[in-house]
Amino acid sequence: MTESTENQRDKLATELGSGPWSLLSAHAQSGSLIMVKPEADFLDVAVAVANDDASRVGQWIQDGTLSREYAPAASSESAFNFIVVNPFVLAQTIPV
């Protein structure tokens, strides 16, 4: 990881939030929410999206690591980490 990427990762880490589905539902309805599979490194994904790393992001979309799909019924009972990487909101379920 380059120093620039490391600095960006550190900055994004300070912007990380967590909370219930109610904080994310409006973003899901507007189409700006991107779900990140729990096994993915959330900050690595955020850095790649922020840097428009089309190769990595494209691969994650293909393999299902990133998706705009979510389970609304289960979501209301879950907690999430989230971060804004304009124009998107990335979210990842917090393991129980």
Provide a compact summary of the structure.
With 96 residues, the chain is an alpha+beta fold. The protein is built from five helices and five strands; from the N terminus they run αβαβααβαββ.
What does this structure look like?
With 96 residues, the chain is an alpha+beta fold. The chain has one domain. Helices cover 43% and strands 24% of the residues. Strands 1-4-5-2-3 form a 5-stranded mixed sheet. Strand 4 (79-85) and strand 5 (88-93) form a beta hairpin. Helix 1 (3-14) crosses helix 3. It is globular. The termini are far apart. 21% of the residues are buried. The mean pLDDT is 90.
Defining traits:
alpha+beta, five-stranded mixed beta sheet, 5 strands, globular, 5 helices, about 100 residues
H/I helix tally: 5
Q: Which strands sit side by side, in order, in the main sheet?
A: 1-4-5-2-3
Q: What fraction strand?
A: 15-25%
The helicity comes to 40-55%
What's the layout of helices and strands?
Blueprint: H1 3-14, E1 17-20, H2 25-30, E2 33-36, H3 42-50, H4 54-63, E3 66-67, H5 72-75, E4 79-85, E5 88-93
Parallel strand pairs: 2-5
Antiparallel strand pairs: 1-4, 2-3, 4-5
Helix pairs in contact: 1-3
